């Protein structure tokens, strides 16, 4: 009986390994963590918003940098959680920007920039910083003017996930500020006995 149990446990572990490996972040040549479900684009903001909308999703841009311990924490502790990753994959198209990178970016106002000059222009100085965009944007706006929310820094699972949910539910159009929304969800999770450490 013990032998069968060991074999079943071993088989379960082997079955789980490819799934875990498929969801694991890797390190790219630029030194940034890469999720297999991040979208690689030409970083044309207007085009990316349209592509996301065409897939029934919202565009989220994440700024990271080589050696960022908070970025590593986001990938290893938060984005590795299936509940978080599955929700984001289903509802958002995530495009990664290197805060000190040289890839070309086309702002919503038509300006051609590099990733690092875009970060300076838009005023983003922390990594990770996640910027959330609406489904459509008025002509002539730059990214910060069009953004519906910005999440600077690394947070625990529930703050992180609730920000994505709040944006998806267009909480920014309601009277329920994100902090109130987050507190309400945390209380509901606590009542359900689902709350783990932040």
UniProtKB/TrEMBL annotation:
InterPro entries named in the record: SoxW (IPR041737), Thioredoxin-like_fold (IPR012336), Thioredoxin-like_sf (IPR036249)
Record-annotated Thioredoxin-like fold domain positions: 52-138
- Signal as a keyword of this entry, yes or no, is yes
Name used for this protein in its record? Thioredoxin-like fold domain-containing protein
Q: One of this protein's Pfam families, by short name?
A: Thioredoxin_2
Question: For this UniProt entry, which residues form the secretion signal?
Answer: 1-24
Protein keywords: Signal
What CDD domains does UniProt report for this protein, alphabetically?
SoxW
């Amino acid at each position: 009986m013990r032998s069968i149990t060991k074999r079943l446990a071993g088989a379960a572990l082997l079955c789980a390994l490819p799934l875990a490996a498929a969801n694991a972040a890797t390190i790219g040549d630029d030194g940034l963590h890469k999720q297999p479900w991040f979208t690689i684009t030409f970083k044309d903001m207007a085009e990316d918003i349209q592509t996301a909308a065409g897939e029934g999703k919202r565009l989220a841009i994440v700024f990271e940098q080589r050696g960022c311990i908070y970025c590593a924490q986001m990938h290893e502790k938060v984005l590795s959680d299936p509940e978080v990753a599955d929700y984001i994959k289903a509802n958002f198209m995530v495009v990664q920007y290197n805060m000190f990178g040289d890839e070309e970016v086309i702002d919503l106002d038509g300006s051609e920039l590099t990733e690092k000059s875009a970060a300076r222009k838009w005023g983003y100085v922390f990594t990770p910083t996640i910027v959330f965009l609406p489904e459509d944007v008025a002509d002539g706006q730059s990214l910060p003017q069009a953004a519906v929310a910005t999440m600077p820094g690394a947070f625990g699972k529930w703050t992180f996930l609730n920000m994505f949910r709040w944006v998806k539910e267009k909480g920014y159009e309601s009277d329920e500020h994100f902090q109130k929304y987050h507190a309400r969800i945390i209380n509901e999770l606590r009542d359900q006995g689902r709350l783990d450490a932040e």
